[in-house]
């Protein structure tokens, strides 16, 4: 099953998409990676969906990526004696550690870490920013605030603190248990929430121990400020625009998105653009024109993947949402402007032999009638490097490792094929040519570019480039031994 587009689609599973028939239909409609949201459902629920995905993968004989999204610490106010209160702009309001039920003048904020970091002038955002409080004075167990944006505040609404770096780890005890469970289950990617600093990612990677790649969700102003350092220690990035739009002025999110995507592309690390992409399709079978334009913008920017959340997890039209995203991607990538924009934003890196090899592969493919770039990869790193070049021709990612094949399902343009382990370059050429032919990329009169590393099956050894004919008569006469 070959996708006729480069950008990948991540679909979240949930109550609307938890059975075999729906998950298979989602994949057939265009989903390349499935997201398991650890904030919702039990471990048994997650395990059941994971098992179904792997069954679909086996039945359709195509590698499928699975992303487990960790919840992160949840900051919430306490409860109110009346269940809810109306806060009026300009009024005084206090948050503190007292467990006494709240009223119109105060409520519990059971997070001493917040008080340890607060300063006068800082903002507290309640209920996704619908209510905004300004800290006037504060101590180790209280903050006296003024209401700058009023509204109804009720029990256990979420709190965002955009102006300070909180002394909180990105991994709660629940997250640690979820991380270990997901790694043992066999997911391919972990999405780390509440990232503020590179150390948060380093901790998650140390716990994952290579069993899953770690993707940092950029959803807090502190993460935007520390982006370069966070990107360096991450395997990938998610631009989580929902919380960014709460904690930062909403008009600042589009340029931030562009900068984050370009940074990840330059670093040869996959980047997902997420949140509210086709949100109206939770209830409607067709999206708004603005939503279609939003998805198209992320694709024009060169994102590796675009993501559906509630649209596919809890919406009425999960399959239609995936199909819509697929159609938008196909339309955008056929537009001549798309290629011009992608080429103009390409970052040239010539720091290693591998950089030079993949750049040469791209240039040869563009200067001649090459049908595909085939790359052998043990870890997936070479596939990332080839994808950074955003070539005009398809990328065939060849690997003997199913774990690598599944992770590359997230990478721009990569069509992964499981091969036998190779020991000699002749065998690699034959394997690449046959994959190109079997998967519909090339025929007898065509050629492909092949990149590989010698010695084989060793990470980080990309050092060979070869143009190979795809004539079956020629490869049949070559002894792979």
How would you describe the overall organization of this protein?
- This protein folds into 3 domains: 8-72 and 169-335, Alpha-Beta Barrel (TIM Barrel); 84-160, PK beta-barrel domain-like (M1 Pyruvate Kinase, Domain 3), CATH 2.40.33.10; 353-476, 3-Layer(aba) Sandwich (Pyruvate Kinase, Chain: A, domain 1), CATH 3.40.1380.
- Helix content is 38%, strand content 23%.
- The protein has 18 helices and 21 strands.
- β20 (447-453) and β21 form a beta hairpin.
- The longest helix has 18 residues, at 43-60.
- The model has no long low-confidence stretch (mean pLDDT 94).
Kindly list the characteristics that best describe this protein.
M1 Pyruvate Kinase, Domain 3, alpha/beta, 481 residues, six-stranded mixed sheet, single chain
Give the SSE layout:
Elements: E1 8-13, H1 20-29, E2 33-37, H2 43-60, E3 65-69, E4 84-87, E5 92-96, E6 106-108, H3 112-117, E7 123-126, E8 131-139, E9 142-149, E10 151-154, E11 159-160, H4 173-185, E12 189-192, H5 198-208, E13 213-218, H6 221-225, H7 227-233, E14 236-240, H8 241-247, H9 253-266, E15 271-274, H10 289-300, E16 305-308, H11 310-313, H12 318-334, H13 336-344, H14 353-367, E17 370-376, H15 381-388, E18 395-399, H16 402-407, E19 414-418, H17 425-438, E20 447-453, E21 462-469, H18 472-476
Parallel strand pairs: 1-2, 1-16, 2-3, 3-12, 5-6, 12-13, 13-14, 14-15, 15-16, 17-18, 17-20, 18-19
Antiparallel strand pairs: 4-10, 5-9, 7-8, 7-11, 8-9, 20-21
Helix pairs in contact: 1-2, 1-12, 5-7, 10-12
